[in-house]
Design brief:
234 residues, mainly alpha, 80% helix, 0% strand
C-alpha cells in the first residue's frame, strides 16, 4: 500500500492562513464589540446627565414648595393671614394646599434602573462614577423610606377639616375661589383651634428638615453631574 505523501510546507502554510483568518475575525469582532460598548456607554452617560439635571430642577422646585408650606403655617401662628389674604387670596389658597403636602419627590432614575436590570452598569468604565451613582440613588431611596415611615401628624387633618369641602372642591376643579371671605373665616377659625400650635410647630420642623436634606441631595446631584460631564468630555 503506497504511503500518503504530505506536502508539509503547503499544509503548514494553509494552517497558518486559517489561524490568521480566525484570529483576524476574532479581533474584528472584539473591536466591533468594544466600539458598540463605547457607543452604548456614551449614550447612557448622556441620558444619566439629563436625568440628574431634571433631579436638580425637582429639588429646587420642591424647596420652594417647602418654603411656602412653612411660611403659610408660620402666618397662621403669627396672625398675618389677613395680610396675605388681602395681597392675593388665590396665592393664599395655593400656600394652604402646599402646607398639607408631605413626601419627597421621585427621582428620574429610569436610565440607572435600566443599567441595573440589564446588568450593563459595568459599561461605565469610571469606577468612581459608578460608585457615586449607586450611592446617590441608594441614599435617596433610604430618605424616601424614612420620610414615608413618619407619622402623618395632626396638621393636615386640622387644615382639611377647617376649609369647607365646597371651597376645596371648587379650587381643585377650577383653580378659583368664588367665596373668598368664607375661605378667610375658615382659616381664622383654624387659628383658634387649641391643637394648632403643637401641630403647626411639628409641621414647620418637618418642612425645614426636609428642605435641608433635599438641598444636600441637590449638591450631591450637582457634583455627580460635574463628574458625568467630565467623563463625557473625555
Amino acid at each position: 500500500m503506497p504511503k500518503l505523501k504530505i506536502d508539509w510546507p503547503k499544509a503548514v502554510g494553509e494552517f497558518l492562513v486559517i489561524v490568521i483568518g480566525v484570529l483576524a475575525a476574532l479581533a474584528v469582532d472584539e473591536w466591533r464589540d468594544e466600539r458598540e460598548d463605547r457607543e452604548s456607554e456614551a449614550a447612557y452617560l448622556s441620558r444619566l446627565a439629563v436625568d440628574i439635571k431634571r433631579d436638580i430642577e425637582v429639588f429646587t422646585d420642591e424647596a420652594v414648595v417647602l418654603q411656602k408650606k412653612a411660611a403659610f403655617i408660620q402666618g397662621l401662628l403669627d396672625n398675618t393671614i389677613e395680610q396675605q389674604f388681602s395681597d392675593n387670596p388665590r396665592t393664599l389658597m395655593e400656600a394652604k394646599v402646599y402646607s398639607s403636602f408631605r413626601g419627597v419627590p421621585g427621582l428620574v432614575r429610569s436610565t440607572f434602573d435600566e443599567l441595573l436590570s440589564t446588568g450593563r452598569l459595568a459599561l461605565i468604565r469610571d469606577v468612581d462614577l459608578r460608585s457615586a451613582l449607586s450611592e446617590y440613588y441608594a441614599e435617596y431611596a433610604s430618605l424616601n423610606e424614612q420620610v414615608n415611615a413618619l407619622s402623618p401628624g395632626d396638621y393636615a387633618e386640622l387644615v382639611q377639616a377647617s376649609v369647607p369641602g365646597s371651597i376645596a372642591r371648587e379650587w381643585r376643579l377650577s383653580n378659583s375661589i368664588s367665596k373668598p371671605q368664607e375661605f378667610l373665616r375658615s382659616l381664622q377659625t383654624l387659628r383658634q383651634h387649641p391643637g394648632l400650635l403643637a401641630a403647626a410647630n411639628s409641621e414647620i420642623t418637618y418642612a425645614t428638615a426636609l428642605e435641608f436634606y433635599l438641598m444636600q441631595f441637590r449638591e450631591q446631584a450637582s457634583e455627580l453631574l460635574r463628574h458625568l460631564q467630565q467623563v463625557i468630555d473625555g
